[in-house]
Amino acid sequence: MTSLLAAVRPHSWNFPLFVHVLGAMILVGGLLTGASILAFARGDVRYLRLGYWTLLFVAFPAYIVMRIGAMWIYSKEGWDDLPAGVDDPTWLVIGFIVADAGALLVLVALILGGIGVRRLRDGRGAGLLKAAMVIAWLVLAAALVAVWAMAGKPN
Amino acid sequence: MSFDDWILALHVLSAFAYVAGMVVFWVLIVAVRKTDTPDGTIRMGPIVKVGTIGTGIGAAGTIVFGIWLAFSVGGYDIWDGWIIAAIVLWAVAGGIGGRTGKEYTKGMDKARELEGAGQTGPNAELLAVNRTQTGLLLHAAASAALLLILIDMIWKPGA
What we know:
By secondary structure, chain A is an all-alpha fold. Chain A has helices at residues 2-8, 14-41, 45-76, 90-119, 126-152. Chain A is built from five helices and no strands.
């Protein structure tokens, strides 16, 4: 399966795949960094802000790049043109579930964290940033499951 | 999933860990450029460990599982040009990464030295060490090497 997939991939699929994978890698990195900084901030306002800005300016843009690449390669590979009654394979379904649910959760984390960062000026908001951190860890864990599914392609 | 599919999944997960570790260091590099206090510098220690673990697991996993795949998967050989290129780039990225780590450890050492001497306020010398241009260039070079590996892995030139 592994060799077959590698052997038959047309060159025109490479760039969309590159965009998708690079975006996903930076997304995972952004989530790991943001969540780690928030986890180790221990109430330090500077680190709470840094963790939030990492989620906003690294993870979120990377998600958009990952998703654009995903839809591009999805179209290139012809998954959007399957005959009626033929479902997407499991690995693709896992990818979509994680991407869609992940987008929603990342948005919730960014909104909660954004409110938290604003409240830091008044000495509050750390709790909201902690909630954003928990969500970021959850999305990170789900993203790793998606990476496993995309790479291993379970039936 | 076949055994090779599992190994491929672990290879790709390792690559993600490697890049994630590099992203951790990028964010820290940007943050440390504005850090002029010993406490602010030392507080980055636990996050540095996250990056170190990510790049460590990533570097080990990519090479071990990658070489396994080169021998195990039909149609590929360890002496294929694109595989040799990936191994060379992996070694280059690792070598440069090690030098980058040493460059940024100087700031951490300086911060500990200042803290030990009871100096807790802003320090221009510490800021200068934290803003190492050499470290920045080395990390950019290591990141470029990883980017080239990704390009090599996807395009597989000559395969």
